[in-house]
TrEMBL record:
InterPro entries in the record: Kinase-like_dom_sf (IPR011009), NH2Glyco/OHUrea_AB-resist_kin (IPR006748)
Protein name in UniProt: Kinase
Organism expressing this protein natively: Streptomyces mashuensis
Source lineage: Bacteria, Bacillati, Actinomycetota, Actinomycetes, Kitasatosporales
Keywords: Kinase, Transferase
GO terms for biological process, alphabetical: secondary metabolic process
């Protein structure tokens, strides 16, 4: 594979996103610096032939389009240390291709996951919004299956307890003073939502949005990139409410449009509209303050403005 080293350089978006994360530290920097060599090692170990790095690429992982020893097209995903490769593989294996990309191999310790090849440049965001939302709703329903006995997935309550603790810490900072009313409401809603869960837990994608549903060959649309949890379905729909945020916030009547999205998704997928609104507000407020902490004021303010509309 001589001569391919330069072709395996991390995309600029990946390096920029990792560097802007408040948790970015020496381990992540060392991983990023060693990523081309690490990729070569994985390619050799699994007898894969690289074609190209997918650009612009993911925000938290490297994706290399490859061919297996028998010529089958596939995609090699490499994630930094401390990420959820093992959980992602467990969820994908449990779904076994139903509504989601099919996993082929995994080395969780190395953060390596070999996946079936999808059309990485074609997501639901390539469709008009009404059609995209319909397809997103149809696909996510296939993912909502009971988790296996003794599953490894964190619950929504456990995961959001970590997010809430971080949000409280950030909300006390001077730079977050303008967001205090929204963050206080978000934290109160999270407490109420986790105090009583109205349905048996299902396996959730965790980061479900139009951009994480790609065109495939064996099915029109398949989900990718889960950060799986076990919990109620309303939690999984929050990012669909928030999708195409720039366009929504630039349109007249943004608040009414946001409420219509909540009502439409709740009705079509038979979830409680108030719980969907609550989870969307909490998750959006947390993401907004996280963006401020990462030095992304425009993104943070837009998310917090949207949370305020809810």
């Amino acid at each position: 594979m001589a001569g391919t080293h330069d072709l395996l350089e991390p995309p600029r978006r990946l390096a920029r996103t990792l560097a802007s994360d408040p948790s970015f530290g020496p381990a992540q920097r060392a991983w990023l610096d060693a990523l081309p060599d690490h990729t070569h090692e994985c390619l050799a170990r699994w007898d894969l032939t690289p074609e190209r790095v997918q650009l612009p690429g993911g925000r938290a992982s490297l994706m290399v389009l490859v061919r297996t020893a028998d010529g089958t097209p596939a995609a090699l995903k490499l994630a930094p240390p401390g990420t959820t490769t093992a959980l992602e593989h467990a969820a994908l294996a449990h779904w076994n291709g139903l509504g989601a990309v099919r996993p082929l191999r995994v080395d969780a310790e190395a953060g390596a996951l070999l996946l079936e090849r999808l059309h990485g440049g074609i997501s639901l965001r390539s469709l008009a919004e009404p059609k995209a939302q319909l397809e997103a709703a149809a696909t996510v329903q296939r993912l909502w299956v009971p988790p296996a006995e003794g599953h490894p997935f964190p619950t929504v309550a456990e995961h959001t307890a970590v997010l809430a603790g971080r949000l409280r810490e950030w909300a006390g900072q001077p730079w977050a003073a303008d967001a205090r009313a929204v963050t206080e409401e978000a934290l109160e809603l999270r407490e109420a939502l986790t105090a009583e869960v109205p349905e048996p837990p299902v396996l959730l994608h965790g980061e479900y949005e139009e951009g994480t549903v790609l065109a495939g060959e064996r099915a029109p649309w398949l989900a990718v990139g889960p950060r799986p949890l076990a919990g109620e379905r309303a939690y999984d729909l929050a990012w669909l409410v928030r999708d195409r945020l720039d366009t929504l916030m630039a349109s007249p009547g943004a608040a009414a449009a946001a409420r219509r999205r909540v009502a439409r998704l709740a009705d079509s997928l038979e979830v409680d509209a108030d719980r969907l609104r609550g989870w969307t507000l909490f998750r959006t407020a947390e993401a907004g303050v996280h963006a401020l902490a990462a030095g992304l004021p425009r993104r943070g303010e837009l998310l917090l403005e949207f949370a305020g509309l809810l």
